[in-house]
Amino acid sequence: MPQWIVVSRSQHIGMHYIKHDGYHYAAKQSVASVMLAELPKLLPHYVLGFIQQEGRYRPVAMLSLDGQNNHYVHSDGRWLGSYVPASLRGYPFSLADIEGDQKHSVWIRLC
Description:
By secondary structure, this protein is mainly β. It folds into two domains: 1-17 and 92-111, no CATH class; 22-84, no CATH class. It is 7% helix and 30% strand. The chain has helices at residues 39-42, 86-89; strands at residues 3-6, 31-33, 47-53, 56-62, 93-97, 104-110. The strands form two sheets. Strands 1-6-5 form a three-stranded antiparallel β-sheet, with no helix packed on it. A three-stranded antiparallel β-sheet has the order 2-4-3. The chain is globular and about 40 Å long. It holds the Pfam family SapC. InterPro entries: SapC.
């Protein structure tokens, strides 16, 4: 099962990642997290939804009607929409907060 970890300069020095080839990794993803700054580019192409998480609502782009298959990913990995949400463009990296810390950290998803 994939997990998210904080990227550390001391623990991950000398490591690298292989850039993804297409959007196959998002084929089963039914929503994508979105930032408020990207809403003007996002709204003409996606239905916006909100997911409750830890007492707050966060905006998401709806990518699936059936909750299982991302309708924006072609079988060859191409993105079929004209705008790709930033959370998917930056994969496998993400910005997130560490609990109890006011700073943002860079996280990476390990498979």
